[in-house]
Amino acid sequence: MTANGGTTDRLAERVAVRDEGAVPVHVSQPGACLQSGALLQPDEPGRPLLAILGTRGIPASHSGFETFAEHLAIYLAGRGWDVEVYCQDDAGRGGPAEWQGVRLRHVPVWRGGSFGSILFDWAAMRQASREPGRVLLVLGYNTALFGLLARLRGATQLVNMDGLEWRRSKWSMPVRGWFWVNERLACWSAQHLIADHPEIATHLATRVSRRKITMIPYGADSVDEADPAVLATFGLQPGGYALVVARPEPENSLLEITRAFCRVRRNMRLVVLGRYDPARRYHRVVREAADDQVLFPGGIYVPEILRVLRRHCRVYVHGHQVGGTNPSLVEALGAGSPVLAHDNRFNRWVAGTAATYFRNEAACADGFDQAETLSPAQLAVRRQASRDRHAEAFTWPAVLAQYEALLERWWVVAQARQATAGTAPPLVESVLK
What one-character DSSP code corresponds to residue 23? Predict the structure, then answer.
């Protein structure tokens, strides 16, 4: 038996012992926390290896995926994993080699925009897939074409399939076609798929076997306290405003929300966060539909300020019509924000039965009317319902434990492949079933 084979045996035994009585890894229970194995020490033989690709890198500064990558990388590094995150280096200046116990691989890219991101994804996959014996976790399928290289090299690749990008109306038909093809390629090239929402898992099951899919939602911190002093900067009072955090795109219902709010004079304001470019028609139309009750502070990306705004809003308005588990909605639940959301199967699963839903502008206006008339006691009940839904399904400890359990099982396979020149023993494959 090779050294790698011995490591595989020890890990297979460890997984089997840990999973006695545990929830199966292919869970359908939202937020179910898998039992975790013993903490690995950094110098323990057989230290698990993970590379995270598909984001611009960490520390997070751009997207929900980056925030997730940051949480997962720090969590696993603290539990003894060797984690490397690939970071897009637009300026070519490099950066720190390590951050909070996580190794950072800076990949220089000399083009900006979407094409620069594609070049980065290609360079990152070329580097990551040539290092055997570790698991590749790819966040998103937008460039799944490059995952074919990992498949050919025998790398073990898991893909978080994000949302249904090819259904989004904001994209042109050629771009939507690109996403559709890459979704199919990800389903074929990856050893396993991760869905962040039961409906995404159901969709993926039309492409691959259910056994190839694990549903693990997005996580968010619980915000129990947030100093409201910062609200004065925007001329706001606690409980005196409705909040929207969304990109200004038609599928996010910004125009319907703004018109619904401005139908009448209200005793609260509407705060709409996001970058509005007067050169873009939809952005202009939304702003033109607003009256003096609506505040457009621009894009705010400082987590501390966002926590305060969510924690003290009277209602959080979520107009997203397409997608899986939206990070902003989950963060609103964690902050105890009462929710008024577009009525679709994605939002109903995330926000739960205590939220209020709308399908059109008139129903959205009714939701605002209701929010205005809530008594302090009724408002407290709605806030607690949001916190309860967050605690049920979207806490970081539960989400990260599920990821660790899944990644650990696939690292067993990665080690077996390295030891047996690309073919995992049936015993190891059975660990995944």
Answer: P
The predicted model gives 367-395 an average pLDDT of 97
Q: What homologous superfamily does CATH list for 3-219+395-431?
A: Glycogen Phosphorylase B; (3.40.50.2000)
Beta bridge partners, 272, equal: 244
CA Rg value for the chain? 23
pLDDT in tens, 85-134: 999 988 777 788 999 999 999 999 887 778 888 999 999 999 999 988 89
What are the extents of the domains in the chain?
3-219+395-431, 228-393
Element (H, E) at 7: helix 3-18
Q: How many residues make up the chain in this entry? A: 433
Spatial contact of 185 and 148, defined as CB atoms under 8 Å apart: yes
What angle do the packed helices 327-334 and 376-393 form, to 10 degrees?
A: 120
Position 35: which residue type?
A: Q
The CATH code belonging to domain 228-393 is 3.40.50.2000
Q: What token pair was written down for 336?
A: 């105890």
Dihedrals phi, psi of 12, to nearest 5 degrees: -60, -40
As a whole number of angstroms, the distance between CA 25 and CA 18 comes to: 12
Tell me the DSSP string of 117-181.
HHHHHHHHHHHHTTSTTSEEEEE-STTGGGHHHHHHTT-EEEEE--S-GGG-TTS-HHHHHHHHH
Whether the full predicted model's pTM is greater than 0.90, yes or no, is no
Chain-wide mean pLDDT for the chain? 86
Q: Specify the residue for token string 């039309």.
A: 206
pLDDT in tens, 304-322: 999 999 999 999 999 999 8
- 312 with 271: CB under 8 angstroms? no
> Both tokens of residue 124?
């990152």
pLDDT band at 22 (very low <50, low <70, confident <90, very high): very low
CA distances 346 to 44, 150, 244, 251, 262, Å, are 42, 31, 18, 13, 27
